[in-house]
């Protein structure tokens, strides 16, 4: 009798701990829709067939129990919607994630909440899919050891829209082309959006606040960033938008405000006989509006508003050839000229020089004192009576006097 009781208890215990969601997936036919009621579904799952898993009410939680990746998708035509995914493992070498999607197409992850997961959405070799309206945050770790909130690797022609990334590390778009990144929000991350070897992407109407870097493009081309707001990038080198070794890029109608560096240009455009266009942006109240590093010529900087910045132009390498960019038709609140004929174009060019006294242009440690009375006084005295010939940086031949 005691053996029967023990056997019954063993069977009941195993049923309680069975991964009932994985069993339901394994037993479902292709094209099935699994509508989950409210509850906690413990254990990681693997989806290797075209199905949909949808929370039919709030409070559907899939808990990975701190082991590995919570949901692994290896099939096309998979939909995950209205779920809370939590409790991934913490191994960077395994890229433990809330949701990992490999070799998929026409899949969707929307209206999901991702918490306590090292990486959020890890998407590899997945095309023509939608990732929309998800809330993503990482584990409670220091910034550098958090996982990325959303990663696109070798993934093309996807729509990434209306997602919120809070206290993650980066949102990454690497080796991925033709994606639309639109209406997303990022806060207290490292790189809110980081491109590498990516082309023909559209970055539109995103808002990034209190991150180390807003948007950074590296080794990329043929991308447009339009209508984005980047505010309060943190630290002495906090950056709004950065371009490194990129070509044929368009930055248009963006607002960059309260950053250490507004727009950072490093060896861009990179390819010969190409341009980058910086047009109709508002670059407001930054320590540096335009920061040039290394040779960066053939950029077209037109019809922007430069207002409230401590420095309009910084060249930290002396060889950046800033004067060989087309800079014309911008509004500069530091312009000291006149408009006698009232055509809203200055009668004389707006010229910017860099003085040897400006030590903070080459020493990032001194940038801590930006805006202080002492630095402001030194800056004024350097312009009033420079002890060496200043370096000519740029000239706007048609500066606007009114916004």
Automatic annotation (TrEMBL):
Source organism, top-level taxon: Bacteria
Gene3D superfamilies, A to Z: Single-stranded right-handed beta-helix, Pectin lyase-like (2.160.20.10)
SUPFAM superfamilies registered for this protein in UniProt: Pectin lyase-like (SSF51126)
Pfam families with a match to the protein in the record: NosD (PF05048)
Coiled-coil residue windows: none
Domain Periplasmic copper-binding protein NosD beta helix: 132-337
Protein name per its UniProtKB record: Nitrous oxidase accessory protein
Organism: Arcobacter caeni
């Amino acid at each position: 009798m005691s053996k029967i009781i023990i056997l019954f208890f063993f069977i009941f215990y195993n049923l309680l701990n069975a991964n009932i969601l994985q069993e339901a997936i394994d037993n479902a036919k292709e094209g099935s829709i699994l509508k989950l009621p409210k509850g906690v579904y413990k254990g990681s799952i693997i989806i290797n067939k075209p199905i949909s898993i949808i929370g039919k009410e709030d409070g559907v939680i899939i808990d990975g129990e701190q082991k590995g990746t919570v949901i692994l998708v290896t099939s096309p035509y998979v939909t995950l919607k209205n779920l809370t995914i939590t409790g991934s493992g913490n191994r960077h070498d395994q890229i433990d994630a809330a949701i990992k999607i490999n070799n998929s197409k026409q899949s969707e992850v929307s209206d999901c909440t991702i918490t306590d997961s090292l990486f959020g959405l890890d998407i590899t070799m997945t095309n023509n899919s939608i990732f929309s309206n998800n809330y993503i945050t990482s584990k409670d770790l220091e910034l550098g050891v958090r996982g990325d909130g959303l990663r696109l690797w070798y993934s093309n022609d996807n729509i990434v829209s209306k997602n919120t990334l809070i206290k993650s590390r980066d949102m990454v778009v690497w080796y991925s082309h033709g994606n639309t990144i639109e209406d997303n929000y990022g806060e207290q991350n490292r790189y809110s959006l980081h491109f590498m070897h990516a082309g023909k992407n559209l970055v539109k109407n995103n808002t990034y606040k209190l991150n180390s870097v807003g948007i950074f493009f590296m080794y990329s081309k043929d991308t447009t960033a339009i209508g984005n707001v980047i505010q309060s990038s943190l630290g002495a080198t906090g950056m709004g938008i950065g371009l490194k070794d990129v070509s044929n890029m368009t930055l248009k109608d963006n607002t960059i405000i309260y950053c250490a560096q507004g727009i950072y240009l490093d060896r861009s455009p990179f390819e010969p006989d190409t341009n980058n266009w910086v047009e109709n942006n508002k670059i407001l109240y930054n320590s540096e509006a335009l920061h040039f590093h290394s040779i960066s010529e053939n950029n077209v900087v037109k019809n922007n508003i430069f207002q409230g910045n401590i420095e309009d132009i910084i060249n930290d390498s002396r060889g950046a050839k800033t004067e060989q960019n087309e800079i014309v038709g911008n509004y500069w609140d530091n312009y000291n000229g006149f408009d006698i004929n009232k055509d809203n174009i200055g009668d004389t060019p707006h010229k910017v020089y860099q003085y040897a006294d400006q030590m903070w242009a080459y020493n990032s440690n001194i940038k801590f004192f930006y805006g202080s009375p002492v630095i402001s006084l030194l800056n004024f005295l350097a312009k009033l009576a420079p002890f060496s010939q200043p370096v000519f940086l740029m000239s706007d031949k048609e500066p606007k006097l009114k916004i």
